[in-house]
Amino acid sequence: MIELTVDGQAVQVEEGSTILDACRRVEIDTPTLCYGDTLTPVNVCRVCVVELEGARTLVPSCSRKAEDGMVVRTDSERVRTSRRLVLELLGSSVNLSTAPEALAYIEQYDAEPDRFGADSLTVAQAVKVDNDLYVRDYSKCILCYKCVEACGVDHQNTFAIAVAGRGFGAHISTELDVPLPESACVYCGNCIAVCPTGALMATSEFELREAGTWKEEEQEEVDTVCPYCGVGCNLTMHVQEGQIVKVTSPDDHDVTLGNLCIKGRFGYRYVQNK
Fold this sequence. Notes:
The protein is an alpha+beta fold. The chain has a domain at 134-272: N-terminal domain of TfIIb, CATH 2.20.25. 21% of the residues lie in helices and 19% in strands. It contains 7 helices and 12 strands. The protein has helices at 19-25, 77-93, 100-108, 146-151, 190-194, 203-210, 262-266; strands at 2-6, 9-13, 49-52, 59-60, 71-73, 134-136, 161-164, 171-174, 200-202, 220-225, 234-240, 243-248. The longest helix has 17 residues, at 77-93.
């Protein structure tokens, strides 16, 4: 065990833990967008930065390893200013209408994305609908890399998607920028499960949202076991008005870690076939 100080509180964590782990140990709410409990930290969103005594720059708490004797401040004016600016830049260029966590952070840090003006550069583009299972709306993409990690070495090992381009031209792309149906995608939907903004969304949810009939607050969640094979993946059925509208899997399930195959995530329609 090692001991560090976070916002004046002494915290003990296991060696190898991150500053974010230490913050959570003392229930300090540190915002994250690109971090996922089941993914390798890539520290690209920079909303989790904290002030570390003796360090020249702010450090990402999601990936910086905790060290014995560290003194960390998570809510200094310097930290709040940095987080506020990052949220304003994101909010001014990306559609965050289906990103409740980001919207909550914008309110928490008094961020004003509109201050950059109506002519600020955005990533607005048409929604990509090229298959029956999920849609891609990259006007909502914050380049958090979570879909890339889920499709790559962290889980699926399909490598159907990656980040292409540089600077403001950086974007999520299939390999060699081929159309999705011609790519290596196996339609497991694990990229959808980790997307924090709704840039990747199951078609069933997208169509209900477009029709104005998506009622998340009224949905019932029912846990069950996938019927397709003997692996034993746990499923959470999201049920609205007696119809299954989405399927997810718990991140803490020791078999799936939140992941499913195409059958588990999308193969539920036979249940409702009259």
